Amino acid sequence: MHRVLLLCTLFLAGCSAQQPDGYLVVDAVIYTMDDSIPVAEAMAVVDGKVAMIGHADDVRAAHPALPERSLGGKTVVPGFTDSHGHFMSLGFRKIMVDLRGSTSIEEVIQRIQAFFPDLEEGEWIRGRGWNQVLWPGQEFPTRQDLDAYFPNNPVALERIDGHASWYNTAAMNIAGFESIQNAEDPVGGAIIRDANGVPTGVFIDAAAGLVERHVPAWTQEETEDALTLALQEAAEMGLTGIHDAGVDQATIDLYKRFIDEDRFTVRMYAMIGGTRGSAFRTYCNNPIIDYGDRLSVRSVKLYLDGALGSRGAALLEDYSDEAGNRGLLFAEPEEFAAQVRESVACGYQVNTHAIGDRGNRVLLESYELAGITPESRPRDEHTQIIALEDVPRFQQLGIIASMQPTHATSDLNMAEDRLGPHRIKGGYAWRTLTDAGIPLAFGSDFPVEKSNPIDGFFAGVTRQTKDLLPEGGWYPEERLTREETLAAFTKGGAYAAFQEDQLGSLSPGKFADFVVLSADIMTVPPPQIIESKVEATFFGGQLVFGPVPGE
């Protein structure tokens, strides 16, 4: 169907192809994120972009020929941008066992059995989302826990943060149990062993590759299904922008094919995963700035350390709950600094995963040595635990803090145990960074966390769980205002991707990517924020999720 006919079908019964390719949004509360007119009541959309925003009478007078769509007083915000997610993993999660929220090993087993009711011998079992912190005793599981139920099926289960994997004996046998047992811990990884030195089945970070390389690759059909499912979920969540944190050439090519087939309904800012793959060489000083207005490839994602939950985040001092353990660096500082220099030489924006205070310290030192300037908009992916004395260095380098608000509310029952009462002051420190003039770009790190940006908005404003705990918020002095939080999910993401001239606000000339909400998240009491839903999502002016508003 031609675009103009589609818009007519969506917005006005009986209109004809001769009418303008556009419409007016009226009777709405529009939070524009445009400082010149923060709140508007009407918007003109023409050719997929915002043509005008303001008072209804003024917009009507300027565009008298356009049909109107009344939203009945509903709230409109710019399309949300998730500034740090793993898009293909979001789709793959839907075709493997979802273990998020499981409260025991027994529940993990039950979910696997429910997902595979007719399991064939030798068939691989794959899942993600377990978190031992939620279980009685909070101890890592073992391969024997899985062997008792799945002795003849290899099992590969990723921890919720993706920084640890749990395998059964059948999977380890395929990889060569004896060779694993005799292997030394790789740089940036650890094999968890029992008192006799025998691997227990849990592998931290780089060590997981000893088994993971033997897990069958997804088929082409499964991969395309996963992308389709991820796009569907993004539309449902009101996500019109995604920063994909670590992609390879095959994924970029798949995105381009979906764009060519007009099946791609997000604006994707893809970070190349590391300096060693073919994608890094392909786009070195040869970036994709705008592929069909839907794909940009001009940055590289580097890794420094692991995650706090699996004690892989690199700390300056020992973990408070495990003496002698300071976590893991994925590369020695000199090697990481070389990766940064190589990336800068290729003209890439450098975006680095750094969780622990040592990881963040090495990031700062390496960026400084590489001569990174604010103009290149360097990013710190997570910025989760920082030494407070390092904050001025973030500001001097112009580092963008790409953070995930729901990490704080997911981790609050664990983080202080790991860090103690002093270091936690530099954890999830949104207000501290904002007050220091450091730009924030918010996301979710899906599928580590759920992809719903409303969850992140609520966390940013309240620092509470969905159960409204703790009362008053967890270290509430680090909360943000609603305006600051929405900006981090819209304008902040656009700035972090060099896209502020096209995205991030509902301003004339920018893409008409916007979301209709069930409640006014900028004014309702905090408990009602978390109950709010996305009712409709528009991408380039086109409805991609929900019924036509007002019908």
Describe this structure in words.
With 551 residues, the chain is an alpha/beta fold. The chain has a domain of 127 residues: Roll (Urease, subunit C, domain 1), CATH 2.30.40.10. 31% of the residues lie in helices and 23% in strands. It is built from 21 helices and 22 strands. Strands 1, 2, 3, 4, 5, 20, 21 and 22 form an eight-stranded mixed beta sheet that branches. Strand 17, helix 14 and strand 18 form a beta-alpha-beta unit. Helix 15 crosses helix 18. The chain is globular.
Going by helix content, strand content and strand pairing, the class is: alpha/beta
What general outline do the C-alpha atoms trace?
globular
Helix content class: 25-40%
- The assigned CATH architecture of the domain at 1-79 and 504-551 is Roll
N- to C-terminal distance: 21 Å
